[in-house]
Design brief:
Layout (H helix, E strand, L loop, with lengths): L8 H27 L2 H10 L33
Length: about 80
Amino acid sequence: MSESGWSNSSVFHNYLTQFFVKHTAELTAKPYLKAMSAENLVSAFRKTGIFPFNNKAITDVDIAPASIYKPAETDRGASQ
């Protein structure tokens, strides 16, 4: 085993350089371009109130800390 923990570092290196890097770009290009459309970007700015500026777009309830839920009430009189 090599220092990196792989049984053969050259196999891992070859995988990264010849397969992973090449195919990752191919697989993610279309979804990325679709998600980064002008329509989506404008919508995101509008929804968050950044532009046009809307200080009421995100309410205090939206940014409130999480609350702890009470455990469900059980029938304490029932026999077990």
